[in-house]
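@channel anyone free to eyeball this complex?
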Amino acid sequence: GNSVTQMEGPVTLSEEAFLTINCTYTATGYPSLFWYVQYPGEGLQLLLKATKADDKGSNKGFEATYRKETTSFHLEKGSVQVSDSAVYFCALSPGGSYIPTFGRGTSLIVHP
Amino acid sequence: NAGVMQNPRHLVRRRGQEARLRCSPMKGHSHVYWYRQLPEEGLKFMVYLQKENIIDESGMPKERFSAEFPKEGPSILRIQQVVRGDSAAYFCASSPQDSYQETQYFGPGTRLLVL
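replying in thread with the prediction:
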């Protein structure tokens, strides 16, 4: 079956530090890959997505590259801000299916 | 263009009562999805609906849970005879099409607490 594995949190960083949140997946076919962000008390917001191998999704300084050979979609940001503190979810939508599979989420805490 | 709207945002019920959760999709979206999020877990798919049709309810418990998306009005997720294990955040999402590449837009969620 399909699955998404994210690194355990919380990830605690100082402002302006470099961020990496690892995400690996297993899926049949050629899935689309997504990163969602959830701020406290809110719903998920799409952060970025990639629909085929070697695509790079980017938004608000975050980026992730679809790596088919390593089945990974790691999230990176060069310089985090306090306002980036949130829970980040990696997800995939398998080819031909509308039902995404979500990872368990990784909490990010950024200190001033 | 208003986003996906859910109400109530918070709902408290006693064991055995009924819970009704409402979701209004984004304007122009005819596909609605319901998810449940347990504490410190990812979202789990429950049901996928189009107007007046349940397309896929494979993630929904067979008993006590039902969902509808009438021709007019919001989508409703109904939980009868709630138990403490139903306490969770329930999120609704909508999309204009059912393509697997189509982005789903999420509402703010309803947080259900069963006492």
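from a first look: The mean pLDDT of chain B is 90.
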